[in-house]
Design a protein that fits this description.
The protein is mainly beta. The chain has no helices and 24 strands. It is flat, with a radius of gyration of 23 Å.
Length: about 375
């Protein structure tokens, strides 16, 4: 047994202790694929989005309205997951996340959401009319040291799997590739004036020896709007190194330009616990697809012990997509201490631990 004394918020309700040995093959009962666990997919409900001809971040019902899914090899197939879920369903480690601006839900499939021995999992969009200059954009993260494939296919007739005779792209990952959100963009100019369906097909022939986890989000078809900015992170204040905050904490946010034109001269704001917003103007120019770390000139007093919810947001005139404008974090100020007893389970590789709150915020490493 080892004893660790740490600083923690006095408002801390609960903590969860995870061993960093994420591949404990003996912990779960059979059948178990090394590093993975059995899982039944969850279904959630929320909202839909507005922008482009088609824009989907999987925040609403799943599959989204007008979308379909198919599983020729059997299994539940693609499903919806919530950001912060850990471990990643079907695995002994990892955390569900989303790309910048992606909201709180994603589409997801993995090795055990397919058939009994192979995977053939299809997620198919609603019908979309293609206009001049339209592009297909989406984000993918492949998790896990296993081979996997994601085909991007197109049909000009219907949403039956046999009708997807056009292959836009074949995304293939080896055992060492992936585990970072990547955006893919493809021109659809060949299909101007046509009504099409787009399919995303995950497939492996042997889902015991192959098959990773595919995290999928922010599907867009159309011409990118010129004006679209938002907050993707709040890096300060933070409890990463201390729980005792001060009377003059800097507020630093990351602003991303999701639009196709450079962005400048727009308001950015923050407010604490729903109080009066602090609003300043970003005068620097942010190129399309670029980010800017901005520190407000007005600091905030967080010295009084307690919890604080900090909301940051942009208010750009003409912003075409408002769902990605804001970002929220929770921090706390305290000088309280708690003592945590950690009992090891005789696995030699378990030599360090991470202690997190119920909101998945790290307290100690």
């Amino acid at each position: 047994m080892r004893r660790i004394t740490i600083i923690a918020w006095f408002i801390l309700i609960s903590i969860i202790v995870f061993s960093q040995n994420l591949r404990n093959y003996n912990y779960f009962s059979a059948p178990v694929k090394p590093g993975k666990i059995s899982h039944s997919p969850s279904v959630f409900q929320a909202k839909s989005l507005e922008s482009y001809t088609l824009e989907e971040s999987f925040e609403g019902t799943f599959p989204p309205t007008g979308w379909t899914k198919a599983n020729p090899d059997g299994g539940p197939g693609w499903n919806q997951q919530t950001v912060g879920t850990t471990p990643i369903p079907g695995w002994q480690g990892g955390t569900i996340d989303a790309p910048a601006g992606g909201g709180s839900k994603i589409a997801f499939c993995t090795w055990n959401t397919g058939g009994s021995s192979s995977n053939d999992q299809w997620l198919i969009t609603s019908q979309v009319l293609i206009n001049s200059g339209d592009e297909l954009k989406f984000w993918v993260r492949k998790f896990g040291p296993y081979v996997d494939n994601l085909d991007v296919k197109l049909s000009t007739t219907n949403a039956q799997t046999a009708s997807f005779t056009v292959t836009i792209a074949n995304l293939t990952w080896t055992t060492t590739e992936g585990d970072a959100w990547t955006e893919y963009t493809y021109s659809l100019n060949t299909y101007i004036g046509q009504n099409v369906y787009i399919a995303f097909r995950e497939h492996v022939a042997d889902n015991y020896n192959d098959g990773a986890a595919i995290l999928f989000d922010m599907v867009r078809i159309g011409t990118p709007p010129a004006s679209d900015v938002g907050i993707t992170a709040i890096s300060s204040p933070s409890n990463e190194t201390t729980c005792s905050l001060t009377a003059s904490e800097n507020v630093t946010v990351t602003v991303m330009n999701f639009g196709s034109a450079a962005a400048t001269g727009f308001p950015v704001s923050y407010q604490v616990n729903g109080g009066t917003p602090v609003t300043e103007t970003i005068s620097a120019s942010i190129n399309a697809g670029a980010t800017l770390d901005y520190t407000f000139t007005q600091s905030v007093n967080l010295s009084v012990y307690g919890g604080y919810e900090i909301l940051a947001y942009t208010s750009m005139v003409g912003d075409a997509t408002t769902f990605n404008d804001s970002y929220t974090v929770s921090v706390g100020s305290s000088d309280a201490y708690i003592t945590v007893d950690l009992l090891t389970d005789a696995y030699p590789s378990e030599s360090s631990w991470i202690i997190i709150t119920q909101n998945n915020d790290m307290v100690h490493k």
